[in-house]
Specification:
Two copies of one chain form a homodimer. The first copy, chain A, is built from 13 helices and eleven strands. Chain A is α+β, with helices and mostly antiparallel strands and 337 residues long. In chain A, the strands form three sheets. Chain A has a seven-stranded mixed β-sheet, sandwiched between helices. In chain A, strand 3, helix 4 and strand 4 form a beta-alpha-beta unit. Chains A and B meet through strand 4, strand 7, helix 8, helix 10 and helix 11 of A and strand 4, strand 7, helix 8, helix 10 and helix 11 of B.
């Protein structure tokens, strides 16, 4: 017996669907959520594949996500929309709001969508990739739980506050990146703790505010941002624009709302889309071609485009399916008993 | 004789005005440009004060800025405007475009302004601070000259590509930051070279693509981004959204356009403004107050807000004037002879 199980992407989708429905999530919400789980597994982002079903089970059993959420779209201004996620998963709220965001970006040239009162466990790249495939330039931001200290400080205040960007490329996968403004993902520190490994200096401070290589002390203390005061400034920006700007919680408020249940963070997300045709009109083709020169120059000097690894994995997974850990699969399958 | 000269801010303004007019810059363009020079001196950002008049002299004498530029505003879409800067300074183009950006952001909730065909020597914080003082949340981006290698690469491709952000605060100076996505400003490496000092690893690669502590080798090779692949991704984003997206040059194209004259970079700038009232309506006051809690929590743990040093300097300068290097002042004053 091997320690992995081979699955087609349809089998991953079906497995995730059965688990979430058994956990009580509504059919419509499940349909939105499983696509990011399939996408994570497909692109070999293990932490965002079926592994996340464990989080979902935790969050659902803690009552921290509304299994029957019915998000409502609000038209706020010619170029602004909000979706009240009704405490459901953000993927579902995005599905409700996406057509309005696209229509507004095309009509006005730029538009923004605020997702409110949502539960977040997925990466942001699926959102910006979907918008880039519609020909739009897209940005997405979300706070999380207050785990990260500002530069020069010692106490957790910011979330891991990711930022994602997507750029449409004719005939190619979009240029997409998505990164946490923390030095590393919180799960990375947890993996080091489980493996009994030390962490590099620069990832976290201990509860006394001192630099630490002990992952447990780092988890109990405060994570650090990437890039020193610059990363800290970006993290503060995301805290503001995907929190108070859209009438939603800060990472500190979200952590308090969690009440120690270790559920997925609840809060807001800000997505901005720009229609290149709005700026460029007839010169769009020439300008998109000049953008390709930037990508060519990156690849041509042996560097990698941010999503290249994911797209390579995607091609493999679509052709040959994926392999998932047998232990993980069986742990999750136990929810189906 | 001391090695500094004390000047009031009005004297700085008058000095800068006389120099630029003598160099041939039109009165209207001069009026826009000098305000950022006064602001730089006032906020003790020495590199963006009267020191920049040396750059202006270089750029004007090389014929790389149009002294009689007449920027033209183009209305592109309900939430998009562009200003053709007519190869004048970006500050003048921003002045022409700012009222349209503010009006569009208020009408549509979010709006973007592309400044095209402009010459850039100033920081971006004056733009986002001005918009934040109008009650808007603001972002600004610009490429520069191709001096910076992408993460994993060895050849200059990106500019120092700064990013600025502004957030309005009732009764307080706006929350503002503005940083280069390069590890340091190019001028910082130049200062090390002049002082005969080594530079830290992580700032630059030599012409063979190897890490270097030699500032001259770093200037001849490639600068590095801050924050590894994350900073590199951000720099690529800025290259795209403030270049091809608005129909303007990449940093590589701008450097080629410079023809070795070492003038200020020519190219585009993208400015985005969001009206908080658009998202928040009646709940604006409550939400702005929650943003203040984030700032309180930063300051309360002994960390600093990004612009705090500048605002402290500003208060001193407004009360007592500034001191500038006598040598620098006399070097610049020579243009008045």
């Amino acid at each position: 017996m091997t320690d992995t199980i081979a699955l087609s992407l349809d089998e991953v989708r079906d497995f995730a669907r059965r688990v979430l429905v058994r956990l009580g999530l509504s059919e419509r919400q499940t349909a939105a959520v499983i696509e990011t789980i399939v996408a994570g597994e497909r692109d070999e982002c293990g932490a965002h594949g079926i592994y996340r079903l464990l989080n979902c089970a935790q969050t659902i059993s803690a009552g921290k996500v509304a299994v029957d959420a019915a998000p409502v779209l609000h038209d706020m201004a010619p170029a602004l929309a909000r979706v009240d996620g009704d405490r459901g998963y953000a993927q579902y709220a995005f599905e409700i709001g996406k057509p309005a965001l696209i229509a507004k970006a095309r009509a006005c040239g730029i538009a923004a969508l605020g997702l409110n009162n949502c539960v977040h466990f997925a990466a942001l790249w699926p959102e910006v990739e979907a918008l880039a495939r519609e020909g739009l330039v897209a940005f997405a931001f979300t706070p999380s739980h207050a785990w990260v200290a500002p530069a020069g400080g010692t106490s957790p205040l910011f979330g891991t506050n990711p930022l994602a960007f997507g750029w449409p490329r004719p005939g190619e996968h979009p240029f997409v990146f998505d990164f946490a403004t923390s030095a590393v993902a919180r799960g990375e520190i947890e993996l080091h703790r489980r493996a009994g490994k030390t962490i590099p200096l620069g990832w976290a401070l201990d509860p006394e505010g001192q630099p630490t290589t002990d992952p447990a002390a780092g988890l109990a203390g405060a994570m650090l941002t990437f890039g020193g005061h610059k990363g800290s400034a970006l993290s503060a920006m995301i805290e503001l624009i995907a929190g108070p700007l859209i009438g939603d919680m800060t990472s500190a408020e979200s952590l308090a709302d969690d009440e120690g249940t270790r559920s997925s963070p609840r809060g807001g997300e800000l997505i901005i889309a720009i229609n290149p045709a709005g700026f460029l009109g007839a010169s769009a083709e020439d300008n998109i071609a000049r953008a390709e020169q930037v990508f060519d120059a990156i690849v041509g000097q042996g560097a990698r485009l941010p999503s290249q690894r994911r797209y390579d994995a995607r091609a493999r997974s679509i052709a040959h399916g994926v392999k998932v850990s047998r232990t993980l699969y069986e742990d999750i399958a136990a929810y189906l008993d």
